[in-house]
Amino acid sequence: MQRVVLEPDNKVCGTCQEPGRKIGEEVTTEYEYLAAKLICKETVRPKYAHECPCAPEAVNIAPLPPRLVPQSKLGLGLAVYILLSRFDDHIAYYTLERIFRERHGVNIPRQQMVQWVEKIAFLLLAIYNGIWEELQATGYLQVDETPVKVLDPEVKGKTATGYLWFYSNPKGDVFLEFCTGRGREGPEKRLADFQGTIQTDAYAVYDSLRRQRPTEIKRLGCLAHIRRKWYKAAGESSAEAIWFIAQIRQLYLIEDETRDLSDAERKAIRRQKAPALWRAMKRRALELRANPRLLPQSSLGKAVNYFLNEYTAAGGYLREGRFEIDNNLVENDVRPSVVGRKRWLFIGHPDAGWHSAVIYTIIQSCRRRGINPQEYLTDVLRRLPSMTNHQVAELLPSRWQPQGADGKGGPL
Which of its termini does the chain have fewer beta carbons within 10 Å around, N or C? Predict the structure, then answer.
């Protein structure tokens, strides 16, 4: 807070020179921006030689504190700035290179930044893996995937398509994994030890996982995906679609009513009010599908078939109060990477995909928990180089307690 006080010129009476009595003040507030600075920080360690006979040729020098990237010029603040600029503000490396050169007079090649990010991502792997272990233990995951372009190392200038897979729990963290394809190999390997319920759209890979391990994996559908089909049909002036949208709106009103209740209370109210709406929609959909005038490839026909195919999976949320009615929470986590790929266009190499997954995982998990990503990364990257593997668990977003620069608790 910076305070500027402007005193009037005539604080005393112009006739008798009696000073005026302060009766109040008017305060005008405005925000100023102080441009960031890139500074060169030197750590000096004097060396002392002992010339006394009791310690001949002995030299004393203070140990160098653990560094984020040994043998580099990367400071903690610069590291956090690069991570957030690239993965939170979605600024391309070549743009960052230009910013450093033009605004700060420092040449930091983009290749150097990529190497730094790889080393930081490797350092953060322990936290990344810990987030997955906590998520997997919940027994309930919302899953989604999104494509991202990747430069083909075999053909200069040509891009391939990779995928970022998202796994999250509505009350927990978000976990991203990069895979070179959209087939079942990625989620099959990731979910090899998972037992519980996954909530997904109707992409066939997810249902194949359920069929492969029916006693271990159950699948919930997503009412938001169903609603989109009805909205598309309504856009083509289908009165039938509008009726279904109205019923779905009633289901979401029940969700609004139970949003802040316990899981048990939420389940009880849902089971009391929602089944009748679901049954009515199923009856109407079956009647429509039996009508010979319904064209299967029309928007209405596709909406009817999608709804009936997903009916059991989409209504599965009624089994437990902790289940969500749709997959919107994990879809919200997909959006930042979608914005990012429009800015930085592609991942530079298939081997670099995991860097993005690790850092996106940590930033998105911070957001889920209301943690400032800058504060979190600054604290965690300060502490990680000197920690053991057993200590890393205390840095997970679910358990993190910030420390000051002096290593003591309190604000950073």
Answer: N
